[in-house]
Structures are given as structure tokens and as C-alpha cells.
Amino acid sequence: MLFPSSIAGSLPKPAWLAEPNKLWPKWRLAGAELAQGKLDATLLAIKLQEDAGIDIVCDGEMSREHFVHGFLEFVDGIDFQNKVEMGIRANRYKAMVPTVRGEVKLKGRVHGAEARLARAHTKKKLKITLPGPMTIADTIADSYYGDKVKMAMAFAGLLNQEARALQADGVDVIQFDEPAYNVFMDQVPGWGVDTLHRAIDGLTCETAVHICYGYGIKANIDWKNNLEGEWRQYEKFFPALAKSRIGGVSLEAIHSRVPMKLLGLLDGKDVLLGVIDVATDKLETPDEVAGVIGEAMKYVPKERIVACTNCGMAPMRFDIAVAKLDALGKGAKLAREKYS
Predict the structure, then answer these.
(1) Where are the domains of the chain?
(2) What is the mean pLDDT of residues 37-45?
(3) Ramachandran area for residue 229 (φ above 0: left; ψ -120 to 50: alpha; else beta)
(4) Residue 157's pLDDT band (boundaries 50, 70, 90)?
């Protein structure tokens, strides 16, 4: 199939599960009810994607309060009781984060329950996302390793452990989310790619890395508004990713100032093309979605294009996110009719 559709990873949680319209929502359930609620919401996310005609579905990250901390909660050696305020993404915004106080080790499976449930209830290709090691290292305080690269590599080993287990669960695509790549561009060709390779070591399923300009929250929108001229961050590390072992690259395209010609730097990679804007409630039309795909075809073989969202939709209004899913499915279908 040309232009299969997928989302970057997250959908808004239903209001009965967590606070709506927040990036760091508080759970509204607890104990066994919360555990079951997370699984119920996972089934809902799959159903919404299937109804919208999405071809590669995911769990919607319904079991995670935050895309990074949802992983860290399953790691020993981390102090969640005494969070500290830290500037992340080069101090773009501040957040209360836990601290690494000892050697990090997985307590057990992280996303096994929702992955196995999703696999049992959909015949579509299934994608599960994990935070990337560079982004983890930029979203947690360290009082043990004393070296950001060493800490990132330690987390990469844990990510690999969970990724191999997800592959055994029947997951078809494992994606690592690395928004920090767009901040620490000069470091990506070195330890950024090295830690990513450690995370995907031994995987035979499809792999991807997601690199965007952030959720549609005020801090990210303000940052993007202050970026002058063309957004050329991707240019600094796409050549390194083209030479890497990662299978695909998820990136921001629609309503951005990213020069589309930069996609040509990803020769040989699948391109998960952002055709849905998560920073606005305005709905894309199928024609708009197909138009972005058509523009990307000037630089990427059409067989390598996946229609995707710019970033996750976790903080978005639930009804808007559902409508954008529909636009994504219809836009990809229209593109197949126009360009096949």
C-alpha cells in the first residue's frame, strides 16, 4: 500500500481516565481501577484509529502519564519522591523531574500489558513508541553517572531490553522519540546515533526515530515562533541518520518552515511525514494532506512515505484529535488515488 497512515504516538486520554487538555495529566483512577482503565483506554485508542482508516495503529500511549516518565517509572535507581526543577530542551521550559541516584535497571516489563492487549485486538500493523536515550538524558536529573553520555547509554540498554520484549509480543514497529535531536543537533551524529544504535540492537522488526518541534503547548509554539527564517535543524543530522541502522524517520512537515528539500538527505529511509498539525485546532482537509504528500514525493520515493502527524496529540482536545485522525485517514486515501 502506498502512503500508509499512522500517528506519531499519543492521543488524548479520555476524561474519565485523566485530566483533559494537559501534557502532564493527573490520573482520575487509582489501584486496580487505574490499571484496568489504562487497558480500556488502549482499546478505545485502537478503535478510534481503525474507524478513521489508520493503517499502522498504536496504543495511543494511554498507560503513560508522560512519554518519558511513563518509561522511567519502571526503572530502579531513580528517585521520584524528591523531584527537582530542571530546564529541559536547552531551557525551553522547566519541569519537575526525578533524579538518577544509582545504577538504572528495569523492574520488569514496561509496556507489555498494553502491547499484548493491542496485538490481540487488532489485525493492523502495530506500533509502540519508546522515549529515545538522548531525550531521556535531557529529561531527568543525574546524581550518579556524572556523565550525560554514559547515562544515556545506560538507558539505551534498558530501552533495548524492553524493545526486544515488545518485538516478542508481536509489535511490528518500534519507534524511539527523540525531540532532543532538534535541540542538540551537533551531538546527534556522535553519541545521539550511538545510543540509538544501542537501543535498536538485535531488533528485526521495523524501527523508526521521531524528531519533531514539540507538542502543541505554549512553550513549544513560542519557541517555534522565535525561530528565524527556514527551520534547518534537520539538515545538521539527517545525513548521519541516513547512514545509520534506523529504518525510518518521523518528522514535522505541514505548517512548518522546514524546507521540504531536506527530506532528500534521508536517502534510503522510510519517511513518516507529518501531514497533521498538532499545534492548532484547525482541521486539515484531505486535499491539504494529499498536497503535503505530493510535495514530499519530489524528494522521497513514494513507496517510502508514511502519512503521519507532526507530533503526539496528548494535550489536544479529545474531539479535535478524533477529527484529525479522520482527516489523516481520508487524506492518505486521497493521496493513494491521486498518485498511485
Answers:
(1) 31-339
(2) 98
(3) left
(4) very high
Asked whether 315 and 215 are in contact (CB, 8 A), the reply is: yes
Query: Using CB atoms within 10 A of its CB, is residue 224 exposed (0-12), middle (13-18) or buried (19+)?
Result: middle
Say what the pLDDT of residue 9 is.
95
Cα 234 to Cα 253: distance, rounded to the nearest angstrom: 11
Alpha-carbon span 132 to 110, nearest angstrom: 15
User: Taking 90 as the threshold, does the pLDDT of residue 299 lie above it?
Assistant: yes
Q: Which of 154, 241, 140, 146 is nearest to 195 (CA)?
A: 154
- Do residues 136 and 195 lie in contact, with contact meaning Cβ atoms separated by under 8 Å? no
pLDDT interval class at 335 (50, 70, 90): very high
Contact between residue 280 and residue 241 where contact means Cβ atoms under 8 Å apart: no
pLDDT tens digits for 257-296?
A: 889 999 999 999 999 999 999 999 999 999 999 999 999 9
Backbone φ, ψ for residue 135 (5° rounding) = -70, -35
Q: Which three cell numbers stand for residue 38?
A: 489504562
Rounded CA-CA distance 94/139 in Å is 10
One DSSP character per residue, 59-74 reads -TTTT-SSTTHHHHTT
Residue owning grid cell 518485538: 167
Which grid cell is 79?
528517585
Quote the CA–CA distance of 157 and 242 in Å, as a whole number: 22
Q: Which fold has domain 31-339?
A: TIM Barrel (3.20.20)
Q: Where are the alpha helices (DSSP H) in 62-121?
A: 69-72, 112-121
Cell for 159?
530501552
pLDDT band at 223 (very low <50, low <70, confident <90, very high): low
Residue 321: which of 11, 52, 29 has the closest Cα?
A: 11
- Tell whether the model's pLDDT for residue 219 goes beyond 80: no
**Rounded to an integer, what distance in angstroms lies between the CA atom of residue 332 and that of residue 337?**
9
CA distance 17 to 28: 5
pTM confidence score:
0.95
